[in-house]
Amino acid sequence: MSAEKSPLPDRLEDPPAGENKINRKAVALVSGGLDSALAIHLVKKQGIDVTAVHFTSFFSPLDIEDEDSPVRNLVRQLKVPLVLRPKGRDFLELIRNPKHGHGKNLNPCVDCRIYTLVKARELMEEIGASFLVTGEVAGQRPMSQRKHTIRFIEKQAGCDGIVVRPLSAQVLPESLPEKVGVLDRGRFLGISGRGRKIQLKMAEEIGLQGYSTPAGGCLLTDKIYSRRLQDLLDDTNEPSQDELDLLRFGRHIRLRAGLKIVVCRNEKENVRLERSAPAGVMFFPVGFPGPLVWASGRPEPEEETRIASILRRYSRPASRGDLIGIRETDAGERQISVTDVAEDDWIEAHMIR
Ligand code: SF4
User: Mean pLDDT across the stretch 204-232?
Assistant: First the structure.
């Protein structure tokens, strides 16, 4: 048996507060989706003092700083304070070696749920709350929301009995706050499965707006995103935050170990790459419109020609020029002249997807 330490955060070994310690304060996990918002609404209606926590990560939406992001929009409507907590670099290790395996792609859903409950319980104890609230619906997701998996995750996280799931409470075992009468189970719901009708009707009734549409999971459930991330993890032991952020956009093409390029797909991506490119080499069209291309390593001269030919392939034939600028971090700018256009077959064979 491996003696390696699990990448999961340490489970809090002390048992959750006993029955006599359950108060009327809770921490609720919010994702920006409808279910977690409705769960907050249902416990607030019972007079519970709720603090929302949202976990940010390199594989979740970038818009959390935006006042109109679904998460901020919803907590404003629900009138609850919001705490942001990062899924830190320890989560990267969890993606590499999930104790309970991956889903279809790089999504380690069971470990991810355990991780977030452990972190949410830490916040719960920091602010003197005594239970957690989630928008989980029994049987909604194939991997982490089966009834017995929900209970398994709760126990593994050291949160036995203190997780309340208002949308499915009536089809799940009674939680501690329900048992001691802090919460009235009869005012919760018994939803199970993937249907959304009840939730949508409720949202309309209470006038909730601006929630994100259910997309079936985070970016780790996306095949192309997962391949890009796996490629980066295979190539680099310690990817930088900028390299992780870059996985969300552009075309990713691997030339060899240690050399990958990202080709922007439009002007918006050009602006974004210019602003946040990690250290590396930038290729840009001189005197004609076209994409910026960022290279992760230091290309050899023949590789520079190849990259310039890829840049030209993604420029409009009618306006394509042959001067390509090269800007290296700490080494200034120069230009090369290239007339080749990369062949589609070659690009297809090297594209990460
Ligand atoms: S879909 Fe993504 S965020 Fe949700 S549990 Fe799975 S890994 Fe975690």
Answer: 90
